[in-house]
User: What shape does this take?
Amino acid sequence: DHLTGVLTRRRFLALFDTVLMRAHNRGEPLVLVLADLDHFKRINDTWGHAVGDLALQRFASLATGVLRSSDMVGRLGGEEFAIVMGRTTLDAATEVAEQLRASVAETDDSFPTGLSMTVSMGMTARRPGDTASEMLKRADLALYRAKESGRNRHVAG
Assistant: This one.
C-alpha cells in the first residue's frame, strides 16, 4: 500500500490463500485478525485527510512493530486492515491484539491536541477445512461484535 507501506488488499489476499494452504497441509495453527480504526471518518472530518493519513500510517507502523517478521499485515481498504499470524494459537494472538489495541489508544504527540485513536478487532483461528473466505467472514462477524459492544476491543469468533 503506497500510503502505509503494508500489503495491498490484492497482495494480502493472494498471500493469505498460500499461507492458509500451507497451514492446512502442515496442521499448524493460524489466526486472522481484521482491524478497523474506530470513528475514522470523524478524524478526517475534524482534522483533515492529512491527519487521517497519519493515523493510518501510525496504525500500520504499530501493527508491524508488534508482529513477527513472519506475520502479514495488509490494508484491505479505507481504515480496515488484516493481519495473519501463522503458527499462532488464538490465545497467543489475543495477547498480540491486546498489545496492539493498547498501543493504538496511547496518546501520540505528533497528532493534534484532542485527537485520540482506538481500534476494534475481530479474530478467528483456522479450523480444519477452512477457506480464506470462511475465515474472513468469521473475523468480520467478530469485528462487528467488537464494534457493537463498545469499540476499542478485540473479539474472537
Observations:
- The chain has a mean pLDDT of 96.
- The first strand starts at residue 30 and ends at 37.
